[in-house]
Amino acid sequence: MPWAISAPTGASRARYAAFSTSRSVWEKEGQVDQELSAKFESELRIEKEARDSDTLPPNIQEYLDNSPFELEDTPGQEEVALTRKFGDESIRITFTIADLNEVNQEEEFDTDPALSDEEAADAADTNAQSGGANIKGAINQGRTKGGNFAVAPEDSIAPSDREEGGYEDAGSGGEGDQEPSFPARIHVNVEKAGKGTLQLDAVAQDGEIVIENVYYYQKPELADAKTAEQDWARRNLYTGPPFGNLDEDLQVLLERYFDERGVNTALALWIPEYIDFKEQKEYLNWLSNVKSFVDA
Length: 296
Prior knowledge:
Blueprint: H1 33-50, H2 58-66, E1 70-73, E2 79-86, E3 89-96, H3 98-109, H4 113-130, E4 133-135, E5 141-143, E6 149-151, E7 184-192, E8 196-205, E9 208-217, H5 228-235, H6 248-260, H7 265-295
Antiparallel strand pairs: 1-2, 2-3, 3-7, 4-9, 5-6, 7-8, 8-9
Helix pairs in contact: 1-7
């Protein structure tokens, strides 16, 4: 006798969840979207009222107008470049606004006054032993045992004798003295066709270029390795000793070499100011973009 197949009863039928199109499921906005958007709008208004981020400040613009360098600044990117020709050399200076953010983060965590004093003392000792060198706006510069310049007050260049515009009062002791700036790392590549690249690593702060290292690369593409292969290829290269280990006369001549090419006091004063300007501009763009995303 064949088996009889009966139709499934209501109790045994598969049950499916009802599909709901209620507002709770298709809610476009979260509970905090409007409040968050309003806060972004408030931040944008406050920042725009505090400073104009669309127009370069006069001192920044004046440096560019009187400098041989061309500015390369892509919106949305942290790195900025200055380029120029010097005879048969191609010179490229790069720096990044990330240095300003790193300084701000360090300041947030540096809350122990006693620790700060100890670190300041340690930094002073390290400075005296590091052999780093400073390029400063001075005429007669003597060197300390540690390799840093000691500038006598009577040897400072008078404000009226400074060639660079926008920074005449820096270091003059007058009312125009600028507040201490943050340290900005710079990389300078001097390339000669078929001869390789001389690369400078330094820090720009308070009108000084403190040289840390001078490297030589026979292959220019290895100076700023952009691929893993290039980075690996340069790891085993001998590119030169620490700058402070060089003969002092050699250090002075290298400083003058880069000074002739525009790596000087004016540049050291300009870079931190431009970083501050660009960071503010990028911050405003970030606020605007995130607000637009929240509102979409």
